[in-house]
Specification:
The protein is of the alpha+beta class. A four-stranded antiparallel sheet has the order 1-2-3-4, with helices on one face. It has one domain. The protein starts with 7 loop residues before the first strand and ends with a helix.
Length: 70
């Protein structure tokens, strides 16, 4: 039996190790989550916008949260 993983797993220096991430949109709203086990931190951000700038803004928010949690 093949199991489909509905999220991405990757290593990132900003997360001090592994990141489990999932994102989705219904073309009106956008949501993304990052779970960083090495940092004991999870971030979930939702927006009622799915414009081209939304992902970049979410990355800025994520980076600000990580900066204050270190």
């Amino acid at each position: 039996m093949k199991v489909q993983v509905p999220y991405s797993i990757f290593e990132a220096s900003w997360a001090d190790g592994l990141v489990y991430s999932h994102a989705g949109s219904n073309n009106m709203n956008f949501s993304i989550s990052w779970t960083m086990p090495e940092m004991n931190l999870g971030i979930l951000i939702n927006s009622n916008s799915s414009s081209k700038n939304t992902r970049a803004i979410f990355r800025e928010i994520r980076n600000a949260i990580i900066a204050v949690s270190k």
